[in-house]
Amino acid sequence: MASKVSPNIEEAHEIARSVVVAQSNLLIKELLRTKGYKGAANKQQIEEQLHDAIDSENLTYDDLTAWMEETEGWGNEHVYLYKVPDHRVDLLADPEKVKARLEKERRGYLWQADRSLEFPEARKLTAVYHDGEELMFVWHEGAGYRRRAIEKDFEEDDQDGEHYFYEAYRRIVQRDVTRVIVRRGLLAVFLPGDNAPATHAECRAELCDDIKTIVPFTAWEIYSMGEAIKTLDTASMRPSLAATLRAPKTRLRAKGGGYVDFGSETDSSYAAVDELREVRAAVRRSKFSGGNAQFTLTLPPLEGAHSPPSTKERTAKVHLYSDYDRIRFTSRLTRADVWWILRKIPKRRRP
């Protein structure tokens, strides 16, 4: 009699098919390295190793859900930073008070909920977590795209002698993850990267409405990205930071109208070009506000990395926009990467 497959193994395969493969190859390969798997050169080989690791129980359901918490939805996103009012800090730092508020609203089922594998058509609040240091609200929403499956292409002749070529696409279903996270005096809103900026104000209002009795954040002060741009741009001029902080593109807006653009034709900082550096040194920061900028940061090694990644793999481009005080990440990152970058962004009030 054939043995039954453990429900946890089946669930692990489902996570691998529907969620894990949508993540960065670098991050998945690092997960596999921790289980002794190496050498995968493409997504297909990575998927094969994933399923083999699950079948052999080297990679468990718990391993995958813990890994997802650190990787799913992190990096390719928009971020807004708010200052938590002083009178709210201690309240939000107390897990029991947050739990009691949810239970009073008959939403206690959200508290420390099991990892949801739902793909709801509309964005849905699926969990509220608190570990004593961080309060996190999580929403999920189904999303999908097509990926070419060349191995499934074929040709055929019909009964009339016409020859046809068929190109195959695999339907990939993934989830958009939206988060609102409070860490003491800082609240961060994380919106999926595919969300158009024009929809962000409405989206943030809807998120706030879901959790307004606990964190009515749209009424709170938002940190100025215009001020952050000026501070980081000035820091990028320091030779001592050239290896870890670069500013390939910066736009400074004159308070009297108009703007000045500084830009490099490479990924290096424009400050590496002597002529541009001289011009920028003549700019009086107090006469300008930050408009928008792109910064490249060299990231620390992956936590628990089993092999040293290349410099190219461990850099992140971060875009800051003074309009609406928005931060934009454009690459897949880990939770630790994202918070490391956010700690580097100056928290300044609007002038």
Order of helices and strands: HHHHEHHEEEEEEHEHEEHEEEH
Number of alpha- plus pi-helical segments: 10
Helical/strand content category: alpha+beta
Please give the alpha-carbon distance between the first and last residues.
74 Å
Q: What is the radius of gyration?
A: 23 Å
Instruction: Sum up the overall morphology in one term.
Output: globular
- Total domains: 3
Mind describing the biggest β-sheet?
11 strands, antiparallel
Runs in which pLDDT lies below 50 for 5 or more consecutive residues are 1-5
- Quaternary structure type: single chain
Helical residue percent band: 25-40%
What is the number of beta strands?
13
Q: Mean pLDDT across all residues, rounded?
A: 86
Beta-strand portion reads 25-35%
Tell me the layout of helices and strands:
Blueprint: H1 7-18, H2 25-33, H3 43-55, H4 61-71, E1 77-83, H5 86-92, H6 95-104, E2 124-130, E3 135-148, E4 154-157, E5 163-166, E6 169-183, E7 186-192, H7 200-211, E8 221-222, H8 225-235, E9 245-254, E10 259-263, H9 274-281, E11 288-298, E12 315-321, E13 326-329, H10 335-344
Antiparallel strand pairs: 1-7, 1-8, 1-13, 2-3, 3-6, 4-5, 6-7, 9-10, 9-11, 11-12, 12-13
Helix pairs in contact: 1-3, 1-4, 2-3
